[in-house]
Each structure stands twice: as structure tokens, then as C-alpha cells.
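Session log. Operator J.P. requested a structure for one protein chain; no other inputs attached. Running the standard single-chain path with C-alpha cell output.
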Amino acid sequence: MHPTATEKINIAIDGYSGCGKSTLAKDLARCLNYIYLDSGAMYRAVTLFFQHSHLDYLRADELEQGLKDINITFDHSGEQPQMLLNGENVEKQIRSQTVNEEVSQIARVSVIRRFLVEKQKRIARNKGVIMEGRDIGTVVLPSAEYKLFLTAETETRVNRRYEQLMESDGKVDIDSIRKNLIERDRIDSSRKDSPLRKAADAIVLDNTNLSREQQLLWVVEDILRHFNFIQLNKDCLLSKASR
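Structure written below.
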């Protein structure tokens, strides 16, 4: 059953680290006036919480205690959505290399995954959500009307992550980033619970040689081919991309 013109759809974006999932999802959300949800940021927030607490997430009792003390929300009042952990804006902290190095280990813990997946599903119930991560199209939103799987060459992803971390941290080593990215791909793709993989009905986009604007243009045009009733925001970056 397809949505009618009065309904909204959900969009699932999955892919490897450094593929630009967040950038695309944010741009797309602005174009469609949809809610953007970075599922990876939620795992990062949990990682940050346990790094700063005196609790060991590998101990069942301490993990249970910690999850009870975690309140994750998003502030959508500004130009960019901001991650709030127990009311504190931690958007910059969760993008640090320290969090990068441990987030895949956190994401392997089934109790944590169930805890966050339930929150993610609840947010998407009313549709009009663009959610990106690693198991969105397969586990979190398997019934999403549009699914996309992003990929890119390894060195392209390494350079993108390096530039991102330089903006937020300023003290990064590109060799460490490369090792971390490859290891995260290995862990995320091989974990038993909700591994990173392409949904059977997802469209694959290799954006190695695409600019931010070209990527957005490609995806928007493809969405409109499937759902021609969708209206674009007049401030959509597509106006720049199509010139």
C-alpha cells in the first residue's frame, strides 16, 4: 500500500562510516520538511555517558542502572539538530575521536541496541522521518517506503572523516582514523545483533565521486520518481545543485 498525497513517508539511509549519511539526511530533511534523526548519534551519546560515568556497560547490573539514567532527546529549534544527553548539548563531544574508538563496541551490546531501537521506532510512528544509521532499513524501519544504502571508496571516507574531526577536534591523525574506520566497518558488519547490511529493497548509491549537491540532486530526483506527490521546500539546496 502506497502513501497518499496527504500522508508522509519514512526514509531509511544506511551505509558505512564516512559515507556522508548525516550530511545527506540533513539536506534531505530540509528539502522535504521532514524530521532528521541520526541513530548513530544516539549510540554515541550512550558511549559518552558510560565513558564519563563510573559504570561498566559489560556488567549486566551496571548496564541496567546506566540505561535508567540516560535520557536522549534532539533539539530541532536551530538550523542543525542537536543531541541532548540528560538535557545537556553534547553534539560536539559525541563527535570526538575518543567516542569514535568505542562506539562500535557499545553498539554490539544487544541490551543497548534494543533500548535505542525502541526509541527510534517510537519517533518514526507518525511518519515524515529521515533516519540514518547501519540497521535502519533492516531492523529499525523495515517498512520504510524509501530505503537507500550509501557506499564510497575507503580513502574517500577516510578523508571525509578527517575533515569532519578537524572541525570538531583539531587533534586527529589520519592513519588512526583509517584504522578506526576499517575496524568499525568490520565490527558493524560482523556483529550478531543487527549487522550492517543492505536491505533487499534498498537502492545503492556510491557517492565516491559525487559532491554534496550532486548527491542530493540524485536522491531527490529518485524519490520524486517514486513519490511524485512530495513537495520540496523552497529553501532546498536542490535549487543550487540544479543550476
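Operator note: Residues 41 and 94 are 7 Å apart (CA to CA).
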